[in-house]
Specification:
Elements (H helix, E strand, L loop, with lengths): L7 H6 L21 E5 L3 H14 L4 E6 L9 E4 L2 E4 L5 E2 L3 H10 L10 E5 L4 E4 L4 H12 L2 H16 L1 H7 L7 H9 L1 H6 L4 H8 L3 H15 L8 H9 L5 E2 L7 H9 L3 E4 L1 E10 L2 E9 L4 E6 L1 E4 L12 E2 L13 E13 L14 E6 L9 E4 L18 E7 L5 H7 E16 L11 E3 L2 E3 L10 H19 L11 H8 L1
Parallel strand pairs: 1-2, 1-13, 2-9, 6-16, 10-14, 13-21
Antiparallel strand pairs: 3-4, 5-8, 6-7, 10-11, 11-12, 15-18, 15-19, 16-17, 17-18, 20-21
Helix pairs in contact: 2-12, 2-14, 3-12, 5-11, 9-11
GO molecular function, one term: prenylcysteine oxidase activity
Cofactor: FAD
Protein name: Prenylcysteine lyase domain-containing protein
């Protein structure tokens, strides 16, 4: 996780621009806001509601609008009386906000079930994990030299810098843009990483092309369903999520979202927000939200609005911005489509070179960038509730598998991957931004007291990235409302914090 800052003039010249003065009018009498709206009840929106409650106190009304299911891209499907993650499924051990959420909500960590991974190039397994760690290290060294060591040092350095955000946020500091946030963590190096392809950065590090093709590309395909031309910062986020120190929530990761809304005492409103309009009354600026529920259409006024839903491309929320000067509607950019197929059946291990399924030792298969391959990965998955006696199904048994692919699998493709199957459930997601090395980063402040959370996804998409953005927006909204400019976009924060201590 990383990024950096551009000079102000570069931000202003970027294709992502705010629609008004973020400072805006001050509250008339210094009173706290009366009503705050959050649009979207995924991890970003639910975490925002939680943090807003922490900073603004118990009196403010927090309404969370959600047109679909709470959890958003954290979702499950039911197969044979068990639930399985169909959306975001893993959390890194260094994700401190997510850890704190689980602790506060009294949730439990899901028991980890070990399983080996291999990389398939369409013809054969080119990389296989074994039961012996030292043997795996020797194989990596023999095939790739010290590329894997260089990669690990690079990711660890980036993660160490990113971890500074927790200290900054604990001391109450906020940032008015993604660029400012990243610059505070990693200087100009982080911003450069959002604009430079991952492959170029790794080659410059001395990582071999073979390692990039056979190890890095498969990880990008399974995590972001894109290739090694994605920006280096996003690649680093993805690679951090490919490490072994990962966890998930017992009962499903989406429980974090519903739990946060509950402890935030937020009003969940099952409604589609159709339009947002600024309403000026004397010195006070409010926003009118027009919405549609199953029973009616309506509108209400809010002092602060946080959009925690995508505004770009076909996946955009459909919110219209009316009465803004200059006018705007949809932000530029698109989201990348991917398909998650949950199959209950018998894996065709012969396709992977193992005619006898009893000899097939792998739980997860990643794939290289190969034109003939129609899927990105296939993995044996465990239910969100794991009993004490649970064991992973053996390949000769009927198990539950998750297949990621660019397009829905047709019958011939399903028959290629599975000898036979009982059920197939398909979820089409647009979970990640379609990353390009030349694009800018969306604004955080769209207008005075109008904030956009999902812009963080254009620097890196993960549950913790959304949680960090949620905390930042809650702090930013609080400081903007109370005119505490000394807590926003401050430089040399590490020195400041040491001085405060």
């Amino acid at each position: 996780m990383d990024r950096s800052l551009l000079p102000l003039f570069a931000v202003l010249l970027s294709p992502w621009t705010a629609v008004g003065d973020p400072e805006g009018p001050a509250p008339v009498d210094g009173a706290p806001p009366s009503k705050i709206a959050v649009v979207g009840a995924g991890i970003g929106g639910s975490a925002t509601a939680h943090f807003l409650r922490q900073h603004f106190g118990p009196e403010v009304q927090v309404d969370v609008f959600e047109k679909g299911e709470v959890g958003g891209r954290l979702a499950t499907v039911t197969v044979n009386h068990n639930d399985y993650e169909s959306g975001g499924s893993i959390i890194h051990s260094l994700n401190l906000h997510m850890q704190e959420f689980v602790k506060q909500l009294g949730l439990k960590y899901r028991r980890s079930i070990a399983g080996k991974t291999a990389v398939f190039n369409g013809k054969e397994m080119i990389l296989e994990e074994t039961d012996w760690y030292l043997l795996d290290l020797f194989r990596l060294w023999w095939r790739y030299g010290i590329s894997f060591i260089r990669l690990q040092m690079w990711v660890e350095e980036i993660m160490e810098k990113f971890m500074r955000i927790y200290k900054y946020q604990a001391h109450g500091y906020a940032f008015s843009s993604v660029e400012e946030l990243l610059d505070s963590l990693g200087g100009s190096g982080f911003i450069n990483m959002t604009r430079r392809p991952l492959s170029d950065s790794l080659l410059e590090l001395g990582v071999s092309q073979r390692f990039i093709d056979e190890v890095i590309a498969p990880v990008m395909r399974v995590n972001y369903r894109q290739n090694v031309s994605i920006p280096a910062f996003i690649g680093a986020v993805s690679l951090a999520g490919a490490q072994n120190n990962l966890w998930a929530v017992e009962g499903g990761n989406k429980l974090v979202c519903s739990g946060l809304l509950k402890i935030a005492n937020a009003n969940l409103r099952q409604a589609q927000v159709n339009a947002i309009s600024p309403v000026q009354s004397g010195e006070a600026l409010q926003y009118q939200l027009s919405f549609t529920t199953a029973a009616r259409t309506g509108s209400e006024l809010y002092d602060i609005v946080v959009l925690a839903t995508p505004l770009q491309g076909s996946v955009g929320s459909g919110v219209q911005f009316q009465g803004f000067s200059p006018p705007f509607n949809q932000l530029p950019g698109n989201y990348h489509s991917t398909v998650a197929t949950i199959v209950h059946g018998y894996l065709n291990t012969s396709f992977f070179g193992f005619p006898d399924p009893r000899l097939f030792p792998f739980a997860s298969i990643l794939t290289t960038e190969t034109p003939d391959l129609f899927f990105n990965s296939v993995a044996s998955v465990c239910p969100v509730n794991i009993s004490t006696g649970f064991r992973r199904k053996q390949p000769q048994e009927a198990g539950v598998y998750k297949v990621f692919s660019p397009q829905p699998l047709d019958k011939s493709q399903l028959k290629t991957l599975f000898r036979s199957y009982y059920s197939v459930q398909v979820t089409e997601w647009q979970p990640y931004s379609h990353y390009g090395s030349s694009q800018g980063l969306p604004p955080v402040e769209l207008h005075s007291n109008l904030y956009y959370l999902n812009g963080i996804e254009w620097a890196g998409s993960a549950m913790e990235m959304s949680s960090v953005a949620a905390k930042n927006i809650a702090l930013l909204a609080y400081h903007r409302w109370n005119r505490q400019t000394d807590m926003v976009d401050q430089r040399d924060l590490m020195h400041r914090i040491k001085t405060e201590l």
